[in-house]
Amino acid sequence: MTRLNLILYFVLIFTALGVVTSQDRSRKLYFELEQQEESAKKMNVEFGQLQLEQSTWSMHSRVEDIAASKLQMQVPDAARIQVVSPDVPVDLPKAQAEKTADEPVVPDAKALVTSAQNISAKNTSTSEAEK
């Protein structure tokens, strides 16, 4: 009987130590959780402030003011503004224009530059003729 009491006593001691260890670990984890939640709140506030700052820096009027003052840029005259629509075909070299209908026509960089130069030359000659 004493042997059984001794075994039960040790089981009781180990169980009590397990409960104390478990509670201590639980408290430490809860404290860490609270710190992480506080850190997340601070980061959310900082993120909101950064979004506000980004929207302030990228305001159209601010960008326009900086472009005018620091870069000496100016808004072009209405006659010089050309709206490019995706429906209007671009002048392509004959080699690319002769591609089959099954293949999508994707102009290379040289073709786009040449087309832009042709359009610019046409607009320049047209605006000079109007003067």
Structure description:
The protein is mainly alpha-helical and 131 residues long. The protein has 2 domains: 2-60; 80-130. Helices cover 70% and strands 0% of the residues. It has 4 helices and no strands. The protein has helices spanning 2-57, 60-69, 94-97, 109-130.
Tell me the total number of β-strands: 0
Distance between the termini: 120 Å
> How much helicity do the residues have?
over 70%
Biggest sheet record: none
Average pLDDT for all residues: 80
Task: Please give the count of helices.
Answer: 4
Q: Low-confidence runs (pLDDT<50, min 5 residues)?
A: none
What is the number of independent domains? 2
Characterize the overall form: rod-shaped
**H/E element sequence:** HHHH
Overall radius of gyration: 37 Å
Q: Return the structural class.
A: mainly alpha
- DSSP strand content: under 5%
Which labels suit this protein?
131 residues; 4 helices; 70% helix; mainly alpha
Summarize the structure.
By secondary structure, this protein is mainly alpha-helical.
How is this fold's topology laid out?
Layout: H1 2-57, H2 60-69, H3 94-97, H4 109-130
